[in-house]
Amino acid sequence: MSLDVLNCLMGLPVGLPVATADLTERERVAVREAPAHAVEVHQGGVVRHAVAPVAVELALIAARDWRVGLRSAGAFAPFCARAVLLTTLPSDEDELREQALRFGVGVFTSIASEQAVFSEPRPYARRRHTAAQWKFAEDVYSALKEQGSA
């Protein structure tokens, strides 16, 4: 779904009927553009059924260079906790630990078939619900479906 449709649907309660007359023109357009399973349109009203399909707990970024990994993990900050997976520890471990702590990104290692937690990721605290978070969840779900994991 488009961000605009998601944004409008977020304003409707889940599972409760809303009179079509109470919708703004923008919401009416969003209801028309929403996939059939997302909303149920009936005599004079609509019921939103759509919710985010998954809750993403952690984005794990595999990286050879920890700086690149931390930068890549930053893209997921609005959506979930983040961590970088390294196959070697750098010589500047103290700087890695400091930067990971500063940005709240965990660092996991997998070296010679041994896994370890170098630093824990900061727990994710959702401050508000946004259409972008919902879209992210839909994109993750679609990717999982394509891989046969959903």
Structural commentary:
With about 150 residues, this protein is an alpha/beta fold. The protein folds into two domains: about 5-50, no CATH class; about 60-120. It has helices spanning about 5-10, 25-35, 65-75, 95-105, 130-145, and strands at about 15-20, 40, 45-50, 60, 80-85, 105-110, 115-120. The protein has a four-stranded mixed sheet with strand order 4-5-6-7, with helices on one face. A three-stranded antiparallel sheet has the order 1-3-2, with no helix packed on it. Strand 6 and strand 7 (about 115-120) form a beta hairpin. Helix 1 crosses helix 2 and helix 3 runs parallel beside helix 4. The longest helix is centred in the C-terminal third of the chain and has 17 residues, at about 130-145. The two termini are about 20 Å apart.
Strand/helix succession: HEHEEEHEHEEH
Q: Estimate what percentage of residues fall within beta strands.
A: 15-25%
Low-pLDDT windows of residues: none
Computed CA radius of gyration, to the nearest angstrom:
20 Å
Helix content: 25-40%
Strand order of the largest sheet: 4-5-6-7
Largest beta-sheet characterization: 4 strands, mixed
Number of strands: 7
Number of helices: 5
Structural class: alpha/beta
Average of pLDDT: 92
Name the overall outline: elongated
Whole-number total of structural domains: 2
Distance between the termini: 18 Å
